[in-house]
Structures are given as structure tokens and as C-alpha cells.
Amino acid sequence: MKLFCVKKIHFFLLFFSLSTQSQVKDLFSKPAELHTISERWELTPESSNGTFLITPYKSIYILPVDWYSSPNEQPYSGNGQPEYIAPPGTNYNNIETKFQLSFKTKILHNFIFGKGDLWVGYTQVSNWQIYNESLSRPFREINYEPEVIFNYPLNFNVLGFKMRMAGVAFNHESNGKGLPFSRSWNRIIFHLGFDRNNWSVYVRPWLRLRSQKDDNPDITQYIGRGDINIIYTNNKSIFTLTGSNNLNFNKNRGNTAVSWSYPIVGNLKGFLLVSHGFGETLIDYNNLQTTIGVGISLIGPL
What we know:
Order of helices and strands: HHHEEEEEEEEEEEEE
Protein name: Phosphatidylcholine 1-acylhydrolase
Largest sheet: 12 strands, antiparallel, barrel
CATH topology: Outer membrane phospholipase (ompla), Chain C
GO molecular function, one term: phospholipase A2 activity
Family: Belongs to the phospholipase A1 family.
Binding site for Ca(2+): 136, 182, 215
Strand content: over 45%
């Protein structure tokens, strides 16, 4: 299972590396133009760039300083199997470096009813104990998230917002580690996209796909069964609020993250990211903590 996941990750990395230098240059030369849902997802003929061009997906950022309140020094899995019992804890620092890379490319254009598009996406989040000299500055956690996304453009009013798109994705996320630290899950994620003036809203409920050997069978009880992402642009500032919830009123859990970005020079933006809850990374899916990170971003949310 783990070898299969690693092969899939290598496939996505190879796939994206086949893009030309001009495509990468175009990605970073015009990010400021991608400030609406329609532009980011090419929902109109005017915004369409065809297929096999690498474009932004989620935010791209680096947080040289990322503080978290409860270092997860002896992670455990809810499946209760002996092979998932971790050895005595590691002395992690409370401050580390975190960065995220995220890209997507369209592989089929207008292939259903003359409108629907098929995309593949890849997101990688890395937590680096760069200040921890005693442990030789290791990467504490790296989460790999390839996915296949079907997206269909829409255009009608809902409660004062304009619904711009609807779709579904097959999403795999894993940390590529062996036992007892292995964590992974597969989801079918449904999504709706709305906007109104300076507001953009994404709603994403998901269904978790069970596997025969489950690293974390109780993950939805902590990370949740869906999330909502609200983005507000005010002059040059971009504010985001992302919340997930398990929809369990007896043992209510989830995660809330807020961010703020502001231009520094050119396309470079200052970036602040604060979160509280479960699932800041996969290894932390059942670990409650607060994080505060300060850094820069190249590509903002949408």
C-alpha cells in the first residue's frame, strides 16, 4: 500500500515536471489576474487557457517561523493496532518552518455537455524542524495530496451570491511514512463555488473511502466531514477563513484557520496564518493545537 502511494506521488511529480519553462514563467508572471473563481478555474471562454498548462491551485507560501502550542512528540493512531504504537517521544521544537506548494493542470476541456473540465492537482505541505540542531534539522512531516477534479461551470443566484461552479474530486492524502507513523486517507470531495463582489466562498463536503488496512479509521471524527473556505478581498489585503467540522454535537471537533496576505513588492506578499484545532498535519490528525506562522506567499487563495 505504501509503495503504491509513493509510486503515485512520483507519477504526479514527473507529470508536472514535463511542463515547459515558458509555462512556469507564465504561472508567476500573471498571478494578480487570477483574482476570481472564474479566472482561477477558467470557467468562461475568455478565461480558458486550454489544456496541460500548469496553473495555481491552493496558496503557495513559506513560513520561516511557524509556532505551535503542542508538539506531537509521540503520535498515536485510533486503530489500536500494536504496530501503530510509537516509541517514546521525540524532542521537537515549538518553532519550525512550514511551506506549501500547490499546482493544477487541465487535462480535458469542455468534455461533458460542452462545458465540464477535468483537472489533476497536486499539493504538498512540509513541516521542517530547521531550528532543531540536536535532531539534525529533520522534516517532521510532509503531506502529499494528489487529486483528480471534475469541474462544471454554473451561473445562477443563491441567497444573493452567484454560484459559479460545482464538481467532484478523488483526493488521496498521505505522509509517505512507514509504521508506526504512517497516515493516509482517500476521499470523494464534492465542491460548490460562490462569489459576490469582494467575497468568494467554497463549500466542500466529503465522503471518506474505507481501506482494508486503515492507518487512521477515526480521522473524520477529528478533521471533520467537510469544510468551508471564505475569502474576502479589501483593497490589497486578502483575508481567508477556513473551517472544518465533524458535525458531531456530542464530541464536536474540527479546525479553524485564518490568514491575511498583503503585497510587499511585485507579486510577493506578506503572509500570516493562524490555526486552532485538530489535523494541522496528518500525523497531528488527533492532536489539538494552536499554530501561528509568519512568512511570505507567491500565490494567494482561491
